[in-house]
Amino acid sequence: MNNNNQLIFRPFVDDSKESHKDLREIFNKYLYHWPLFLLSMLLCLTLAYFYLKQIKPVYHIKAKLSIKDEKNKTASTKAAALEELNISSAPKLVESEMEILKSRPLIRQVVTQLQLWATYTEPANAEDLYSKTPVRFKLLETAAPLKETSLDITINSANRFSLSGPDGKTLDASFKNTLTSSFGRWKLEPTSDVKNYIGKTIRISLQNPEALITQYQYKINTVLNKTAPIVELKIDDLVPERGKDVLNSLIAAYKTFNIADKNKETESTLKFINERLTSLTGELTDVEKDVEGYKSSIGLTDISSQSQFYLDNVQSNDGRLNEVNVQLNVIEGVERYVNSAANSGNAPATIGITDPNLISLVEQLTKLQLQRDKLLAITPENNPIFIPLNRQIKSTKETIKQTIGGIKSSLLATRQQLQLFNSRFESSIKNIPGQERKYVSIKRQQGIKENLYVYLLQKREEVALSYASTLTDAHTVEEAYYEEPQSRKEYPLTVALLLGFLLPVGLIAGRDALRNRILTRKEIETATSAPIICELVQEESKTAIVVLNRDNYAIGEQFRALRTNLLHVYNRKEKGKVILFTSSISGEGKSFVTSNIGASLAISGRKTVVLELDLRRPKISKIFKMDTAGPGLSELLNGDAEKEDVIQPSGIHPNLFVMGSGSIPDNPAELLESEEMESLINELRFEYDNILIDSPPLRLVTDAMILAKMSDITLYLIRQGYTGKPELKFIKQMQEEKKLPNLNLVFNGIQRGKYGYGYNYDYSYYNEKDRKSVVKDYIKDFFKRF
């Protein structure tokens, strides 16, 4: 019979709803294991409950700091004045200042000032006593680097305490005593709260300050407001008072650093002016004494108008010459700085220099040098970040050298010209009487010194005023504050619910993947082209013959559908059709399906005989509750019994007969290959409409392959969740090699609830009792649902 004419029983499925069907299958698969989900949810929620009991609220402390950003700063009157004095500060970038805020030197000041390396807790309730500690730990002398350790003390009175040592011994001491430990000498100082803790034990935990500084560098976060140069400082802490103190102390330390950094730029200018004033003071005093002595010695009171004219010109010319000398002095200082090999030290002053290009270059060099100094505070010198910065410093110095060369040549030429003018004036003065000429010379020196002295005094006052300024470019917008922490219970509970759901899903999916069993029809159709003639659900029944049981209507109807499909495979009027039932391994339901389809065929009026040819492990006789003491097929094939002695009525229907296996033979394969077996099949073809052969598993023994030669149709059983996926390759091989005639597959033991695959059947159409038992299906076999 052509296999293409087969009618396969399968409920109608709308392809447009295939995706919804897949979702329902997945949902039903996991719904079957509801006890596992319930247990997982309860366990995770219980753990979340105890977790919430243990955790403490975390406070979010914030503060805001305004920093002047020179990138966006417009020129102000004060800035212009400072630029005129050539002592304007280098531009500040908010981004770099944010890094300075978190630098180790500043945080070290905070840790040291607040003694954060010492924490005080009450072991009874694990409460942190930062703001209300009864004692303060004071380290007087360090013998070794402080490591993580703890001290347990009991407050005996307002003046005494007991220290519990690691060896279990107790030391009674006074708050005035100085104690010595491995880390150094220390003492405890009582606070105003000491009376509230009399009789209680306090634990003092000490940490390595350097490690604590690193921790705070990660704990403190800085966030820049893009629309304004305002930096928001954030820190999370279990003790809000400590978090506030940390941020406020950090801001104060930064402001102090900012002022010191700002005034550092004026040190070189102030130092240069003071050195010049010290030298000029002595020179001016000597000149004034010379004038006074000369006038007293000769009794000079006035000079002629001509002498006065020459004197005025000489003084004016000498003033210009002095300015040139000052500029040359400053130029030489700048030249010495740029010629030095080191990249550190104070930048030279540019006071008196009128060339804007040189002033700009020196300012640029100052900015680069300060930027390098700031990076050195937070970054090692061998860091690659210094390479481009050092190149810029070197390039700027080279440009300054070239500029200085031109300026110096110009100043030297000017000085030579001024000196020439002086020579001319001096030759003219020679015509003045000797006393007046000498007086003019002395007076000229006095005027030069006085003008330079007054000029430097004025500059020193201006620079000193800026240097003494306590104004800073950083201003506190909002001091540290905190709000009551919001309840975070929803997060652990949400995580618990999510884990309670995902853990069973992962367990079920992983278990199915490890089992590697066939679960859906699609897996079969993908691996092999053999048609699936029927799908049989798994139902519990008190009897093995479910076709006649009114409580098993669903599977009974499926067996009737299987019978209909078989009758369409061949003409229902044909007699003597041999149907072979086999499978890959034992336990896939061959005997069960064989006996029930035999009963179904018999009920339809077809005379049917079932051959129990699984001679090694016979089951048909037990299903039909037959007497196994009599002869069977093994005796018949050995010639020890007649056919009439082996054929027995099934006791279920007059049209159904059974031939038991008999005793287990030593050579079952040889018996099945004998001529007697072939003769028996040929005789039964004339006597019965259907001959059903229950054979052994094909994967285990060769018996089914022998019987396939005598069969017309092969029904190959696959059991859901039991048959391994590798068996599909074996079935495909059997089909391609055509070793099994008219191969059809029966998908047996389908459990829609457990594996999610299958079709819903309206049991109420057959029996209302099944509708009422829907709820019971979720409760029975409780432990099997895990």
TrEMBL record:
Pfam families membership: AAA_31 (PF13614), Wzz (PF02706)
- Predominant subcellular localization, coarse grouping: membrane
User: Where is each AAA domain found?
Assistant: 577-737
Instruction: Cite the GO molecular-function annotations of the record.
Output: ATP binding; non-membrane spanning protein tyrosine kinase activity
User: Which EC main class describes this enzyme?
Assistant: transferase
Q: Where is the Polysaccharide chain length determinant N-terminal domain?
A: 22-114
Mark the transmembrane ranges. Answer: 31-52
Q: Which UniProt keywords apply?
A: ATP-binding, Cell inner membrane, Cell membrane, Kinase, Membrane, Nucleotide-binding, Transferase, Transmembrane, Transmembrane helix, Tyrosine-protein kinase
Query: NCBIfam families recorded for this chain?
Result: eps_fam
Protein's UniProt name: non-specific protein-tyrosine kinase
